[in-house]
Design goal:
The protein is α/β, with parallel strands linked by helices and 468 residues long. Helices cover 48% and strands 18% of the residues. It has a six-stranded parallel sheet, with helices on both faces. Strand 6 and strand 7 form a beta hairpin. Zinc ion binds next to loops.
């Protein structure tokens, strides 16, 4: 049986789940469900990243022991994904001792290889990103992604990883189409340019940050949170029972702020430790909320719970997928979500299903083997999620509505063969739509299928009530 291993980033526990985390997780869910529906054995991994200075500081502010703080926040992510019916197979926490053990093993391998040395490091550091900032990341002398006070000057003696040693090999991998692992192509070009402009070695440990995994060969320092976090993808396959064969990962899904770590540093670490490389990374863009950057200070953060309360679980996932920020940022907002919900789900799909179910009540239906449309599958595998479901709506839903409006079967007698034929065609199309929707809205798909299986039964209630 084909194996497929897909991951989301592990979310930094300093935050609570918002629509940004949600879109990556929902996208991974859709891809995982497609692979399962195709009969593959899937391992879908998500989790939380719990070490580092920022977490320790936040815990302190809340007056909690750091582990107690993590134990309080981590379940919020897991519960949010369960509420959204995300089909993850394992939820990893980087404070899990089994993960910590693998981190120590991997780093020891890198050390034994001679790829680690001690040096002094000075520079501007963003506590928000938990990293030293490069020239190009500075906006007015502070991190462009976080408020100015998060940027501090730091000078430390750290252990360094010889990242530069692996740059030529990584460039070679990316430039060869067969081994390139960076998608979409724009991101590949961005990384290549950055690699060719010169890369410095990176520190892999921290002094004075106690909340972390001790560096195996020097317990006075802790492993830099990023090195610990990246290893989760590999560590889960090593300690979760029966998952060893799933490494290397087939797909790491990520947001653009963590592109460099996932496409350069992670690969170099694996090359050094002689562990095989993940096959593909896909980096999506960000959500804008009504034309503005989403931020706590603007108070425009949308949470998954807010969407579920307004639209329902599967409907929320539909709205996220239809606005998925694939290659460019995607501008969304609650009002536009409402419009999209009413247009696509209430007025279009929902209305079609109830109309046809009512007109064809009692009509016998035939079993037909449905397979995934090739183009649809390709779009999903290329994370063009909006286009994939646009295709389903065009091909099956809009086509049926058009047919109904052109032929007005309700004007014909119930036994009229022309009426029966038109309705049969619509039923076939609706079932095909439901078949494709099973990887996004499995319960809705099942309701639709039940309505048309063997004999047409009218819906007991509207699939998608209109929202004001
Ligand atoms: Zn930052």
């Amino acid at each position: 049986m084909n194996k497929f291993f897909i991951t989301t980033p592990i979310y930094y526990i300093n935050d609570i789940p918002h629509i940004g985390h949600t879109c990556t997780t929902v996208a991974a869910d859709v891809v995982a469900r497609l692979h399962r529906a195709k009969g593959e054995e899937v391992f879908f991994l998500t989790g939380t990243d719990e070490h580092g200075q920022k977490v320790a500081e936040t815990a302190q502010k809340e007056g909690l022991e750091v582990k107690a703080y993590c134990d309080k926040i981590s379940p919020r992510f897991e519960e949010a994904w369960k509420k959204l019916d995300i089909s993850f197979d394992f939820f990893i926490r980087t404070t899990d001792p089994r993960h910590e053990k693998v981190v120590a093993e991997v780093l020891q391998k890198i050390y034994d290889k001679g790829d680690v040395y001690k040096a002094k490091y000075e520079g501007l550091y963003c506590v928000g990103c938990e990293k030293f900032l490069t020239e190009s990341e500075l906006v007015d002398n502070h991190c462009g992604l976080h408020p100015p006070e998060k940027t501090v000057f730091k000078s430390e003696e750290n252990w360094f990883f010889k990242l530069s040693k692996y740059v030529p090999e990584i460039i070679k991998l990316i430039e060869n189409d067969k081994t390139n692992y960076i998608y979409p192509i724009g991101k590949k070009l961005e990384i290549l340019a950055k690699l060719k402009s010169g890369v410095k070695d990176v520190s892999i440990s921290r002094e004075n940050v106690e909340w972390g995994i001790p560096t195996p060969w020097d317990k006075s320092q802790t492993v830099y949170v990023w090195f610990d976090a990246l290893i989760n993808y590999y560590s889960a396959t090593q300690f979760v029972e029966g998952k060893k064969d799933f490494w290397p990962a087939d797909l790491h899904l990520l947001g653009k702020e963590i592109l460099w770590f996932h496409t350069v540093i992670w690969q170099a670490m694996l090359l050094s430790a002689e562990i095989s490389l993940p096959k593909k990374t896909y980096t999506h863009s960000f959500y804008m909320i009504d034309g503005q950057k989403m931020s706590k200070s603007l108070g425009n953060v949308i949470s998954p719970q807010q969407l579920v309360d307004l639209f329902g679980v599967e409907e929320s996932k539909y709205l996220i997928v239809r606005s998925f920020p694939s290659e460019n940022d995607s501008d969304v907002g609650i009002n536009r979500f409402k419009e999209k919900y009413n247009a696509d789900l209430a007025n279009n799909l929902g209305n079609l299903v109830s109309r046809v179910a009512k007109l064809a009540e009692g009509q016998k239906t035939e079993e037909e083997k449905i397979e995934f449309d090739n183009e649809f599958e390709e779009l999903i595998n290329n994370l063009k999620l909006d286009e994939a479901f646009e295709l389903v709506f065009n091909k099956y839903v809009d086509a049926s509505n058009l047919k109904l409006n052109q032929t007005s079967p309700w004007k014909l007698e119930k036994e009229n063969p022309e009426r029966i034929a038109v309705l049969n065609e619509c039923i076939k199309n609706i079932r095909k739509a439901a078949f494709h929707l099973q990887i996004l809205m499995p319960k809705v798909a099942e309701k639709i299928e039940n309505c048309f299986k063997n004999e047409v039964k009218p819906l007991s209630e509207s699939l998608f009530p209109r929202i004001k």
